Amino acid sequence: MAYLDGIAVLDIETSGLSPDRCAILSIGIVSYRERLNEFYREYYPFDGAEVVEESMKINGLDIDRIKRDPINDPKNAVEDVRAFLQNSGCNVTAGQNPSFDRNFVNAYAERYGIDFRLPIWMLDMHSVCMAYMLERGIDIPRKQGVGLFLSGDKILEFVGLGAEPKPHNALNGARYEFEALCRLIYGKSVLPQFSTLPLPERLRK
């Protein structure tokens, strides 16, 4: 059995928002084809990387505690993503904001001269959930002065998972997003760690 066949949920924690100036600090990936496949690794920042305090509060990582050894070398980040996708039979990535993660991977590929790029087609959890709600006439959350505002935590709450624990961890984030997509698309809970969180009746198929 495969869920999101050919698609891996990719979540990346970074030292800031700019793919050109900021560093990838951790990568979490989840796919499911016959069995659950997961990957997590932390990377020390490249020399001169910009570090934004607000981003560090979100991910809770301490750069000084990330091991500076060959396995955590930032040069490995792109190859680690490529190897996981190849080994799990995936060529499309997914997530709440997958273009953010894609842009960082592709910027690193450019930085280190690696002949690999994540493609522009992706599965966006935000769009999947919004389409689900629109089709069924479910009110989409709004934020005053902004309009429609369907955040990641709002989606997780909608599918019965509750807000993701903070600070944000890349593997945990990938797990939550994978489970949320499965609940929206298949109408069932897939990952064992979420089996105690009931699937809302409106999602059942």
Description:
The chain is α/β, with parallel strands linked by helices. It has a single domain (2-203), classed as Nucleotidyltransferase, domain 5, CATH 3.30.420. Helices cover 33% and strands 19% of the residues. It is built from six helices and eight strands. It has helices at 53-59, 76-87, 98-111, 125-135, 152-158, 170-186, and strands at residues 2-3, 7-14, 24-33, 35-42, 92-95, 122-124, 142-143, 147-148. The strands form two sheets. Strands 1, 2, 3, 4, 5 and 6 form a six-stranded mixed beta sheet that branches. Helix 4 packs parallel to helix 6 (170-186). The longest helix has 17 residues, at 170-186. The protein is globular, with a radius of gyration of 17 Å.
The total of beta strands comes to: 8
What is the N-to-C succession of helices and strands? EEEEHHEHEHEEHH
Q: Proportion of β residues?
A: 15-25%
Give the helix level as a range of percent: 25-40%
Draw up the topology in text:
Elements: E1 2-3, E2 7-14, E3 24-33, E4 35-42, H1 53-59, H2 76-87, E5 92-95, H3 98-111, E6 122-124, H4 125-135, E7 142-143, E8 147-148, H5 152-158, H6 170-186
Helix pairs in contact: 4-6
Entry keywords:
6 helices; Nucleotidyltransferase, domain 5; two-stranded antiparallel sheet; globular; 205 residues; six-stranded mixed β-sheet; alpha/beta; single chain
